[in-house]
Structures are given as C-alpha cells and as structure tokens.
Design a protein that fits this description.
The chain is mostly helical. It contains 8 helices and no strands. Helix content is about 75%, strand content about 0%. The longest helix has 28 residues. It starts with a helix and ends with a helix.
Length: about 200
C-alpha cells in the first residue's frame, strides 16, 4: 500500500470514527445527557452560525438569533433524528427552514440608523461599496426566488458548505442529480441577474 492509499485509508477511518462518535453523542443527548448535547453544539455551532450569517447577508445579530432558534428546534425534535445523515447536515436543513420562515414573516421591516451606513475602510469608494452590496443583494434575492429543490441545494452547498454527497443522501437522490440541480440553478441565476442588469 502506497502513501496516498494509506492517507486515504486513515481519512476514511477517521470519518467512520467521527461518525461513530457523533452517533454515540446523539444517542446520549436523546437520553438527556447535557454533556453530550454541549459537545454536539461545540462541534456544529460555528458551521451553523456561518451558514446563517451568509443567508442573513452579514447581519451578525440576526444570524445569532436564528442560530439559537435552530438549536432550540433541533433539541425539540432530536428524538426523530435517525443519524442517516450527518448531524451538521440535519442542522443545516433546520437552519435553512428557520431562515425561510423568518424571511416569509410579513412584519420584517428593519430600521437603519444613520451610523449603520458608515464605511470604516476608506479604500473602496462609497459607490463601489454600494454597487457590491446591491449586486450581492440581487444575487441573494435571485437565489431565494429559485424553486425549492434548487434553492435548498444551492444554499446548502454554497452557504452551508454541505458536501454534495451529503445533500444527495439527505434528499435521497444521487450526487449526479445534485450536480444537475446545481447546473440548472446556475442557468436560472445567470438569466435572472442578466434580466436585472437590463432593467
């Protein structure tokens, strides 16, 4: 066995050990073990928060609130988690749904105070900063207007850093089908962005 094969075998074994350890912790948490629950939070919190931070367009306070809401919902339904996918993938799905529920609320008005538009870094001009923010907002809106299956796949993979095989396992389809979804989503996003720039 060469060095590359040995390294791959160690990575696979490490993944199996990690998944076994995760399953053990999940089962302990289901039985009310607070230490196990805290370990699961420590292992997953930064990824869940980072995904929500991207979804919330950099709003740290909102991302933190939705992260707390995600974990509250997760612990309430932990008994139903069967460990067929990774815990992080399951949590991402809950975070994604939590975010969509927030976005769909009718009373989402956000007041901006005068200091909230200040740009601390003088390097980019205010016009460039606004332009980038507008483009980012347009792309975010285009992603959120995709059909549900495409929207989830795009946000899980790019905002949640969920690997394609994990998304496929959770969605109960092949990795090839997930890649097809991504290609279709990119075509729709490109068309939406082109349409926006024309108007």
């Amino acid at each position: 066995m060469g060095h590359a094969e040995e390294a791959e075998a160690v990575r696979e074994l490490g993944g199996v050990i990690f998944e076994f350890g995760e399953t053990r912790l999940v089962n302990a948490a289901k039985l009310g073990d607070r230490d196990a629950a805290e370990q699961l939070v420590e292992r997953t919190y930064s990824a869940v928060y980072a995904a929500l931070y991207r979804m919330c367009h950099g709003d740290a306070e909102l991302a933190a609130d939705l992260t707390q809401d995600t974990y509250r919902k997760a612990w309430e339904s932990l008994a139903g988690f069967d460990c067929r996918s990774k815990l992080s993938t399951w949590l991402y799905r809950i975070a994604y749904t939590t975010f969509l529920n927030h976005v769909r609320r009718p009373d989402r008005s956000v007041e901006l105070d005068e200091g909230s538009m200040e740009v601390n870094d003088p390097a980019p001009s205010i016009e460039e900063t606004i332009g980038r923010n507008e483009e980012s907002s347009l792309l975010r809106e285009a992603v959120l207007s995709l059909p549900e299956d495409l929207r989830y796949t795009v946000t899980a993979h790019f905002w949640g850093d969920v690997p394609i095989p994990e998304i496929a396992r959770q969605e109960k389809i092949t990795a090839v089908a997930i890649r097809k979804r991504l290609r279709k989503a990119f075509m729709l996003l490109e068309a939406a962005m082109m349409e926006t720039t024309k108007s």
